[in-house]
Every structure is written in structure tokens, then in C-alpha cells.
Write a structure and sequence with these properties.
- The complex is a heterotrimer of chains A (667), B (266) and C (149).
- Chain A has 667 residues and is of the alpha/beta class.
- Chain A has four domains: 4-132, 3-Layer(aba) Sandwich (Rossmann fold), CATH 3.40.50; 142-324 and 538-554, no CATH class; 334-498, 3-Layer(bba) Sandwich (FAD/NAD(P)-binding domain); 579-648, Alpha-Beta Plaits.
- A five-stranded parallel β-sheet of chain A has the order 10-7-6-18-29. A five-stranded parallel β-sheet of chain A has the order 20-27-21-22-23. A four-stranded parallel β-sheet of chain A has the order 2-1-3-4, sandwiched between helices.
- Chain A is globular, with a radius of gyration of 32 Å.
- In chain B, helix 3 links the parallel strand 3 (70-74) and strand 4.
- Chain B is of the alpha/beta class and 266 residues long.
- The relative contact order of chain B is 0.12.
- In chain B, strands 2-1-3-4-5 form a five-stranded mixed β-sheet.
- Chain C is of the alpha/beta class and 149 residues long.
- Chain C contains five helices and four strands; from the N terminus they run E-H-E-H-E-H-E-H-H.
- In chain C, helix 1 (17-26) crosses helix 4.
- Chain C is globular and about 40 Å long.
- Classes of the chains: A alpha/beta (667), B alpha/beta (266), C alpha/beta (149).
- At the A-C interface, helix 3, helix 4, helix 5, helix 17 and helix 18 of A face helix 1, strand 2, helix 2 and helix 3 of C.
Chain lengths: 667, 266, 149
């Protein structure tokens, strides 16, 4: 027989002003199974909680209904109070008399009646509540960081410095990401490589970090604290342990005309190559798509010149299987390919380039050694035009969002140009200048006021060639949409930042949600910016949306702390409000018939097949089984199961059924 | 169907299968299921237009399944049911061999269930004209008229569960009606009990019913309960691009599309 | 005779509509007191048989509400729910259950005002339709004219 206590809170006057709390307590007290009921001014206060605790002890209560505010507010408070008094916390339910009654209805009979109804529903529900114990899951204290750009580097270092192991995987031959391609960084104009490379080296040398470059995520199984990850280490065709990185092979390789990815196609590289001089690891890989030996079966020059015989033509991809407790996604972004704008003539005119290409031109380590020379003839452009929002904020192009970094890097580009080309003229076509950030606005003002960059507010409609000049047709909207034609020697497009082409596939592999633009989705836009909806997987940097360096770094450190919090515990404690498949005595074992429609309905891949075997080891029945580590408790499977074989703890069939019955029937 | 008998005998003699499921003559000019275990039993096999019962009902039964590998005489609806059952992990290539009978009454032996599926997919599930007319008539009624129609049609039902027994998709060991904690479906066969039983059955068959009419044929009172499942089929076509049983494809009701119809949601 | 006060049961998810209804409260937006909320973790958990049970037990109207598409706390529970609603609603209509009495809605945690509107418009619509006598006759429940005494 249930002995339920009902505790009606006045919430000062928040509830009692419109609800007759004394009557709610009195009426509830008469309900079947209610052993005690009382109303009190502030149930959540210390004396209020003591009231509950002493009633539990003195009356031997088996269940508690607190009729107060929203359970979303104080359910944890009252469950904790119950637990302190020795009652299982899951034997406590809350009726929402404040948000759902007193604050939304006028004082009167009907309002009090509704309050009584809500209490009654939960009294009946509590009769079917079961004592539940928190689920404990062990934690493997190794983190996987995917992506070796600045975000991945920062996250790896921060996690490693808390004393935990990190595996960092990078798909390219070197870590460094987009930041390693940049010339100088806004708003301080310090050299990107100079601030980045020490971090890259630190990663390589950190005792807690294992770096797998030229590696990709193959598959992920498991759940928070317990992921089983397969990493594909692509064959580099060299013995990494032997190779000293002397670079002789790269100088002798006869295939020299491959557009360099690092230089955004403005420079060339060989088939066996190190992407850039400061690469980490500084060891070459053979690009099998371009290597003569792999294409034609002949050459092997690198093998001949290698002083230590480190070339391995027959090396195959290897799969590394690792156990991981948390994952940080830091896969970054891509730049929209500018063939997207036929009107701007990218591809048609060699001197129409992207912002990232300009970075390479301006970089001391770039193909022009930092001199601004145009790709077509190597001449220094005397007139240069920068086009902001090339794709961004353009719904017609399918990119309604702002790419965020362009306003700042365009100001930087124009500034760098003015510093390097004395007497040159630069123009920026922009829609708005978005320079929110510490010292950002000042930086843009400097470009305009001190370096004399001409800012023109308006969009560029077309770029075409005439008499060896690029004619940029735009308007100046600040001068009444006056047409502006500029004869330029070079044009730089601030192309939109977009998600990587494989972002969707990666998200699906990890069961992480993503937005309409394929950027990974954070769990909450304000309060959980580095978490994903999949427990144990975190986000850092531009894979979540375009971000600049300081933001990427902050996010990375944030994600690292989330990982460190997770790793500070040996076991995770989870709410036991999860689904379970019923079990019955043999020979039935369960009412589950193993149709496994629930498997495809589960958003978390939490349902697996369980084989029941006899003593001889033969499978006699196959049932669904819910993995308590993966189940998040949505109950989608429960409503789906025809045989009612799965039930959701805390929201069981009996509990929900009873609530509906109690709601519509007064006893 | 000499060919069928011959092949059934061979399979049983060779021990390839332990039982051949087919039709034999029953009483009062009706046919019934035959379970041929000895080669000589196969002589009783028949196939003609009276053979409408969906034999797939038997392949999920422990008594039949337990004998070992089964072969089954399968008309198109039976094959459809087999594919749906295979997609629900109830049968597979290791325990079932399909001796198909085409709509032209020709026998084809399928190598595996994937072949059966390919064959099944040559035909779409079409609602027969006589039923379409009935459904259209019902659609034209007001909700109140439909309500009266169904309450009246369902009122003679005394819950013999012949519909459930005849349905190849109703293979659950414990049906929702047998749950009493809570008592989802009222036990008595009063109007409410009947209504809820048939509603629940229809919705459990949504995206699974292969439209064989076995339930209707089995109903001793001739209740047109197959109209309910046919309605679900039409809805599946209208909203989700149609239903066709498939071993590998996602199930109609355990999957979704982000752009599923939304216009009824405020 | 007192005015007919419809009994309305709302089946809502915890993360969006329940939170949205909390916001209605926090914003002190008033609405009709006829609705009683039953809290579920997700619309995906809502068993359509419970809706039938609500009518059995005398509900005059039902609200089912959860997170907007793509906002589901559990990623896709609402998508699964929506597909079931489509079928269930159609079946109800085919059987002759008055689907004007079942309102489906998406109410986010930020849409406190929308929740009040949904409740008010549902109450008004059901008031117009009157008690669900047709169903109650079959369910053999006497129709109560007034919810509160």
C-alpha cells in the first residue's frame, strides 16, 4: 500500500494568490494512498525541505508529490531532499502549480480545481514509480581530437596538459590547418607561422599527445566514456621511423608541376612532398595520384636517392583501433570554390583570386616570397580591388549567413598591400563592415584612415577584361547607387567560408547533428556552444560555423575543459530514465519478437541485438537490448513497439496510462 | 501443379528441406494448409484459384519453423509477406526456400530471398477497384456517418481473433490485447473494445500490411476490416511515396523524412 | 445551465512545449484553464493509444505538442512522432473520430505566447463543437456538462 506525501507550496504568494493551497492539500489528503498532505509557504526553502524530510522519516512515506513550481526548475532539489531522507529520489514527482496554473489563470474555483487535478495525476503516477539507481559508466581517459588546425592543436595541448592522453588525427600530411597558410593575422599583424609553429612543435613533442597525420576517422562505435574508434592511417609510402626528413627525395622527384594545396595552387610541389617547410611532422608523403611509379610502374628515383632506404612503395593503409573517452571535432572549414561566381570571372581571369590565395602571395614563405605579384605575369598590381561577401549573405547563392572573418581579413589584405606596394591603390567593395571584436574596429579604421584604402559601399555586379585590365563594375550606394567602374590589375574575392565537403558524412559517422549548411550543430546556441547533442563529443573552431583564430582557440580551450571535466571522474553517473526491454521467464524470455523496427527508430543507435543461448550454446531467441550507456531516454522506441516490450523508466506505460486515467476521472 | 509436386518430393527426399508448406483440399470445397514432411505427402499438393489463404502465416510459427528448413508454395501476396517478414528478421535464406507461383500460375524456384524481392518488386500493390469504390464512398461521408458506419460494421465482432491468426504480420507472441498492465484494449467485445482492437491492429499494420486480404477472408462475420489497412496503404502512398516490402530498405514507419507533411500541425 | 467547459488533455514533450508552457507562466500570459498537461520526455514517446484512452475517459479535445522540426532534444523523436501522427490522424478520420478535436502543434521553449494561443484557440474550437457525445455514447460514459462541479 502506497504512503504518499503531498507537499503544496505557496511560493510566497506566487501560487497562493490564485490557488487555494490549503484546499489543494486538504483534498489531496483524501486521495487513496495519500498518507500525509500539507501546504507551506516556501517548500524549496530549508524549513520546507525539512518538512518533507521529516515527513518521509516519520510517516514512512513511499512516494512524494511536491506541488510547486515547474519540475524543470526544482525537480533536482526535491529529489535530492528525498534522497537525503532515505527515499529513492525517483519516487518524487512534481506538480507544476505555478507556471502551469497560478501564473496563467485568474483566481477562482476552476484554477484551484485544475491544481487539484494536477496533484491527483501525479499522486496516481507516483504509485507506479519505481526506485531507480543512477547508471554508472566507466570512462576511458583518452581523448580523440579530429583535425590539426589551430583549434585541434589548442584542444590537444590543453587536454594533454591536464595530464590526459590525446590522440590527434589530421587528414593532411601536416598539422597547422588554414592558420599555417596565413600571412599575418588581424588585428595585430603578427606573423601567423611565427605564433603557430611553436604550438605545432609542442604537439609533436608532448608526451601525452599521439599525432597521426595523414589519417582519417574510419568508424566510431560506443558512447560517452567508451568510444571504440578506428583510425585509417593512410599510407605515406615511407617508413616514418627511419625517415629523417632530410628532404633529398623531394628535390630529386621528377614530377614537379603539381599545384600545391598549401599555396592554393599558386605554387607547385613534387609528387613526394612535405606541404611546407615548417610542417609537423616534417616528413614527406608520396601523393600516389601523381607519382609516376604508381601511375606507370617506373621511376623509383626517390627510393634511389634516399640515403637511408626509407621509401616503402608497397606500404598499405593501416587501421588503428583505439579506445576513447571523449572526442573533440575540430575539422575546420573550406573556402567556397569561386567557380561559384561566373560573373566574377574566377578561373577565366588568372588575376581574379581568392582571399586565401592572397594570403599565400602576402606570405614570406609563399610562392612570391611575400611580394604582391599577380599570377598572370608576375607584375606588381598598381590597382587592386577586394570584393567582400563573395557568396556570403547572398540568399540567391544559398549562403544567407555571414562568413564573419572576411571583413577583417580584407582590411588586413588591403593594409598589407598598401604596406608592400607603395603608391598602389586599393579598393574594397563591401556591404557592411562587421568589425566586432577587441581592437577590430580600430584596425579597420586604420586601414581606411592611415593606409588610405578606399572603401566603397556596394556590391560588384560583374568583372570582365578589357585592354588588359580587369573592369570591376559596382555601385556606390552611399552616393545614391552611383555606378563605379574600376580598372584593376588584380581582384581578390572574399569567398564564403563553408563546411567541408565531407562534413555531412563525418557527422553521420559520429551521430552528431548538423545545420542546413552542414556545419556541426552545438547542443545549445547559448549555453552549450562546445557540446554536441551526442554526449562525449565536443566542438572546436570553424567546423561549427566560420570563426576567427581567437574564437577558435577559445572554443578549443572550452572543449578541452569539457573533456577534462569528463575525465576527472572514474565513472560517469547518468540519469536512469532510459528504455529497457522486458524480460520474462523461459521459454518466453521477453515479449519482444525481435522485429528490430526499434533499431531504425532509435536516434542514438542504442538498441542492439541480444542472443539468448541455451546450454549448448545454440541461439534460441534474438531480442532487442537497450545499451544503457547510449540510451538518452527519448522513448521513441517505446511508442513504436507493437508488443509493448520496451518501456521507459520514469515514463512507463503504467505511469503514463495512469496519468491519463487519473486526469479524467475524479475519485 | 505436377511440377510443384515433383520439386517438393525432390526437396524432401534430398533432405534439402524438412517441410514443404502448400495447399491441399479441405472440406466443403475449401482448401487448407498442407505441411508435407514425407515425400509422399507432397502428392496432396494442389494449386488453384481457391488457394487464397496466406501461407506465410505459418513460417513464423515455432511448430513449423522448428522442423528445420522450410519450403513454401508462395503466390505473390505470400512472397510479399515473406519479404516483409524477412525485413523484420523473422525468416531468412537459411531457413526458407521459396517455390513461387507467378500470377500466370507458373512455378519459379528462387535462389534466395533477394531474388524473391526482385520478383515482388515487378508488381506494385494496387487496391482492387471494388475496394477503391468502397473507400471513395466512405471518404465522401461526413465523419459522423463514417463513425456510425464503423460502429455498426464492427458491432458483430466478438473478438475471435481469426483476423489476427490469418495475418502473416501478426506473429507477435504477446499481442497488445493481451497486455493487462495496463489494460490497453478493453477485453469485452463491446463497441469500444471492438473499435480499439481494430484501430490498434490497423495502425500496427501501417507500413507492413501487404494487402493480401487474409484477415477479411478469415473473418467469420465478413467485417470489412481490410478497408482499414487499405486506407493505411493509400496514406502511405500519398504521404511517403508508397509501400513495397523490402528486406534492406528502411521501414516506412520506423523512419522519417525531414520534409514529411506538416500542414496539419499548428 | 452553466456554459460547457471542455476537458482538454495536452500531451507535450518536456524540452520544448513543456518549457514553452513554463515560459507562458513566467511571462504571466493568461489562458483558459481547461487544459491539463501530461509531460513526456519527447513527442516520440507519446503512444497514440493514449490519445484514444483520453477520449475513452471523457476528453473533449486533445493537444499534442512538441519541438519544431530540427529542434528535437533527441534529434529526431519529433520526426518519428510526426510520421505516426500522419497515419494515426488519417486512421482516426477514416474511422470517423472527429479530428478537429485533436490539435497537433510545434511549440518551442521560446514560444510562451504561442502556447497560450494554442490552448485558447483549442478551447474555443472545442467549445464550439460541444461535448464529444458521439464518442462518449460508444465509450458508455455519461457526458458531463461542466468540468467543475
Amino acid at each position: 500500500m502506497s504512503k504518499i506525501g503531498v507537499f503544496v507550496c505557496h511560493c510566497g504568494e506566487n501560487i497562493s494568490a490564485t490557488v487555494d493551497c490549503a484546499r489543494v492539500a486538504e483534498t489531496s489528503g483524501k486521495l487513496d494512498g495519500v498518507a500525509y498532505s500539507v501546504d507551506y509557504k516556501y517548500m524549496c526553502s530549508d524549513p520546507g525541505q525539512s518538512l518533507i524530510k521529516s515527513a518521509i522519516k516519520e510517516k514512512g512515506l513511499t512516494g512524494v508529490v511536491v506541488a510547486a513550481c515547474s519540475p524543470r526548475m526544482h525537480e533536482p532539489t526535491f529529489r535530492k531532499a528525498c534522497a537525503e531522507a532515505g527515499l529513492n529520489p525517483y519516487m518524487c514527482e512534481m506538480a507544476n502549480l505555478r507556471e502551469h496554473v497560478s501564473w496563467v489563470h485568474e483566481k477562482g474555483e476552476a484554477t484551484t480545481e485544475k491544481a487539484i487535478d494536477l496533484v491527483r495525476i501525479l499522486v496516481e503516477k507516483v504509485k507506479y514509480n519505481q526506485s531507480l539507481n543512477a547508471i554508472k559508466v566507466p570512462v576511458t581517459k583518452t581523448a580523440l581530437v579530429i583535425g590539426g588546425g589551430i583549434a585541434g592543436i589548442q584542444a590537444s595541448l590543453d587536454i594533454a596538459n591536464t595530464g590526459h592522453k590525446v590522440i590527434l588525427i589530421e587528414k593532411d600530411p601536416s598539422i597547422g590547418g588554414h592558420m599555417s597558410q596565413l600571412s599575418e593575422t588581424f588585428p595585430t599583424l603578427d606573423c601567423s607561422q611565427c605564433i603557430l609553429t611553436p604550438r605545432m612543435v609542442e604537439v609533436a613533442q608532448h608526451p601525452n599527445i599521439t599525432l597521426y597525420s595523414y589519417a582519417e576517422l574510419e568508424s566510431v562505435e560506443g558512447f560517452i566514456g567508451n568510444f571504440k574508434v578506428k583510425i585509417r592511417r593512410k599510407s605515406k609510402s615511407i617508413d616514418e621511423k627511419l625517415c629523417t626528413g632530410c628532404g633529398l627525395c623531394t628535390t630529386k622527384c621528377p614530377v614537379k608541376k603539381i599545384p600545391s594545396e598549401f599555396n592554393e595552387g599558386l605554387g607547385m610541389r613534387t609528387a613526394i612532398y612535405v606541404p611546407f617547410p615548417q610542417a609537423v611532422p616534417n616528413k614527406p608523403v608520396i601523393d600516389r595520384e601523381h607519382c609516376t611509379y604508381y601511375l606507370k610502374g617506373k621511376c623509383r628515383i626517390c627510393e634511389k636517392v634516399c640515403p637511408i632506404q626509407a621509401i616503402r612503395f608497397d606500404q598499405e593503409d593501416t587501421i588503428e583501433e583505439v579506445e576513447i573517452g571523449a572526442i573533440v571535432l575540430a575539422t575546420g572549414f573550406s573556402v567556397k570554390q569561386p567557380d561559384f561566381f561566373p560573373e566574377y570571372g574566377y578561373g577565366k581571369y588568372p588575376d581574379v583570386i581568392t582571399g586565401l590565395q592572397f594570403e599565400r602571395l602576402a606570405s614570406a614563405s609563399g610562392p612570391t616570397l611575400g611580394e604582391i605579384r599577380r599570377p598572370s605575369d608576375g607584375k606588381v598590381p598598381q590597382n587592386i580591388v577586394f570584393v567582400a561577401c563573395a557568396g556570403s549573405r547572398d540568399e540567391a547563392k544559398g549562403i544567407p549567413y555571414c562568413s564573419k572573418i572576411c571583413c577583417m581579413y580584407i582590411a588586413k589584405h588591403a593594409m598589407l598591400y598598401q604596406h608592400k606596394v607603395h603608391g598602389g591603390k586599393s579598393y574594397v567593395f563591401y556591404m557592411d563592415i562587421r568589425a566586432g571584436g577587441k581592437n577590430y574596429e580600430e584596425f579597420v579604421r586604420r586601414a581606411i584612415e592611415e593606409d588610405g584604402v578606399n572603401y566603397v559601399r556596394g556590391r560588384v555586379s560583374r568583372i570582365y577584361e578589357k585592354n588588359g585590365k580587369l573592369i570591376v563594375k559596382g555601385v556606390d550606394t552611399l552616393l545614391g547607387a552611383m555606378p563605379v567602374d574600376i580598372e584593376a590589375d588584380m581582384v581578390v574575392l572574399a569567398t564564403a567560408g563553408v563546411a567541408n565537403s565531407d562534413a555531412e558524412a563525418l557527422a553521420q559517422k559520429l551521430h552528431v547533428s548538423y545545420d542546413a549548411y552542414k556545419f556541426f550543430a552545438e547542443a545549445h546556441p547559448k549555453l552549450k556552444p562546445v557540446e554536441t547533442n551526442t554526449a562525449g563529443i565536443f566542438l572546436a573552431g570553424a567546423c561549427q560555423s566560420p570563426r576567427d583564430i581567437p574564437e577558435s582557440v577559445s572554443m578549443a580551450s572550452g572543449a578541452a575543459v569539457k573533456v577534462a571535466c569528463l575525465f576527472s571522474q572514474d565513472e560517469l553517473t547518468r540519469d536512469p530514465l532510459i528504455a529497457v526491454v522486458n524480460r520474462m521467464a523461459p521459454p518466453v524470455y521477453s515479449s519482444c519478437v525481435g522485429c528490430f523496427l526499434c533499431v531504425s527508430a532509435c536516434p542514438y543507435q542504442a538498441i542492439e541485438k541480444e542472443e539468448i543461448k541455451n546450454r549448448a550454446g545454440e541461439v534460441i531467441k534474438t531480442l532487442a537490448r537497450v545499451n544503457p550507456g547510449l540510451c538518452q531516454g527519448c522513448g521513441t522506441c517505446v511508442a513504436f513497439c507493437r508488443t509493448k516490450s520496451i518501456d521507459l523508466q520514469g515514463y512507463t506505460h503504467e505511469q503514463m496510462y495512469t496519468e491519463v486515467m487519473a486526469l479524467l476521472n475524479e475519485y | 501443379m505436377d511440377e510443384l509436386i515433383k520439386r517438393a518430393k525432390e526437396l524432401l527426399e534430398a533432405g534439402t528441406v524438412k517441410v514443404v508448406i502448400g495447399y491441399e483440399n479441405g472440406s466443403a470445397d475449401k482448401t487448407r494448409a498442407l505441411f508435407a514432411i514425407e515425400p509422399k505427402d507432397a502428392d496432396k499438393l494442389i494449386f488453384d484459384s481457391r488457394c487464397v489463404m496466406n501461407l506465410a502465416t505459418y513460417i513464423t510459427k515455432a511448430e513449423v519453423k522448428g522442423k528445420g528448413k522450410m519450403a513454401i508454395t508462395a503466390t505473390l501476396p505470400v512472397m510479399r509477406a515473406i519479404i516483409q517478414l524477412a525485413s523484420e528478421f523473422q525468416v531468412n535464406d537459411s531457413n526458407l526456400l521459396v517455390l513461387g507461383i507467378t500470377p500466370e500460375s507458373k512455378m519459379i524456384e528462387f535462389k534466395d530471398l533477394a531474388e524473391v524481392e526482385a520478383f515482388v518488386h515487378k508488381y506494385t500493390i494496387e487496391i482492387e477497384a471494388k475496394y477503391s469504390e468502397k473507400l471513395e464512398k466512405l471518404d465522401k461521408m461526413t465523419p459522423s456517418e463514417r463513425w456510425s458506419f464503423w460502429i455498426e460494421e464492427l458491432s458483430p465482432c466478438f473478438k475471435c481473433y481469426a483476423c489476427r491468426a490469418a495475418c502473416p504480420m501478426c506473429y507477435c507472441h504477446k499481442c497488445t490485447v493481451e497486455f493487462n498492465q495496463p489494460q490497453w484494449i478493453p477485453v469485452p467485445s463491446h463497441d469500444l473494445g471492438n473499435l480499439e482492437w481494430h484501430m490498434m491492429r490497423a495502425i500496427h499494420l501501417a507500413g507492413r500490411c501487404i494487402d493480401c486480404d487474409a484477415c477479411y477472408n478469415a473473418c467469420p462475420l465478413g467485417i470489412p476490416l481490410n478497408l482499414l489497412t487499405k486506407r493505411m496503404l493509400i496514406d502511405a502512398k500519398e504521404h511517403f511515396g508508397g509501400y513495397q516490402p523490402s528486406i534492406k530498405a528502411d521501414h516506412l514507419m520506423s523512419t522519417y523524412k525531414p520534409d514529411d507533411k506538416d500542414n496539419f500541425i499548428m | 445551465m452553466a456554459e460547457f467547459e471542455p476537458k482538454i488533455v495536452a500531451f507535450v514533450c518536456n524540452w520544448c512545449t513543456y518549457a514553452g508552457a513554463d515560459l507562458t507562466g513566467t511571462s504571466r500570459i493568461k489562458y483558459a484553464s481547461n487544459v491539463r498537461i501530461v509531460r513526456f520526455p519527447c513527442t516520440g514517446r507519446i503512444d497514440y493509444m493514449l490519445l484514444v484512452k483520453a477520449f475513452d475517459e471523457g476528453a473533449d479535445g486533445i493537444i499534442v505538442s512538441g519541438c519544431h522540426p530540427n529542434d528535437c532534444h533527441y534529434t529526431s523523436g519529433n520526426f518519428h512522432a510526426r510520421r505516426r501522427w500522419i497515419m494515426f490522424r488519417s486512421l482516426c478520420d477514416f474511422i470517423g473520430i472527429d479530428i478537429r478535436r485533436i490539435k497537433f502543434s510545434w511549440v518551442s521553449a521560446a514560444e510562451g505566447a504561442k502556447w497560450a494561443d494554442i490552448v485558447n484557440s483549442t478551447v474555443a474550437a472545442i467549445r464550439e463543437l460541444g461535448p464529444y457525445e458521439e464518442y462518449q455514447k460508444v465509450a458508455k460514459k455519461p457526458v458531463k456538462e461542466v468540468i467543475n462541479g
